[in-house]
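Lab notebook page, bench 4
Experiment: in silico fold of construct C2
Operator: M.H.
Input chain length: 99 residues
Purpose: comparison with the prior construct
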Amino acid sequence: MIWLAISPLGLFLLYVLYVQYERGGFWVAFKVFGIFGYPLDVFYNMLMCFFTWQKPVAWTITVQLPAIAKVPGWRGEFAIALANFLNWFAPSGQHVKLR
């Protein structure tokens, strides 16, 4: 079961739980999932930067994606698609701010 905790799927599950804090009220307690997801987020951000040949400008994926989205070609298209996918799960719909 440890593989789930360190896999991209594990990071995604933590993201979906963490981002619920945007609802406010009781949901603010879900920010605790960010504590567990942050180290994975940093690791996968560095991995994503390596595979897209981009210099890291931020620690987390959600801050890095707008910078990669400005790059023409497949890298930018990948970043926009990933940002839209992550935004779809956020209650505000704007967790990753591309503009």
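Observations: The chain has a mean pLDDT of 81. Residues 32-51 form the longest helix (20 residues).
Next step: discuss at group meeting.
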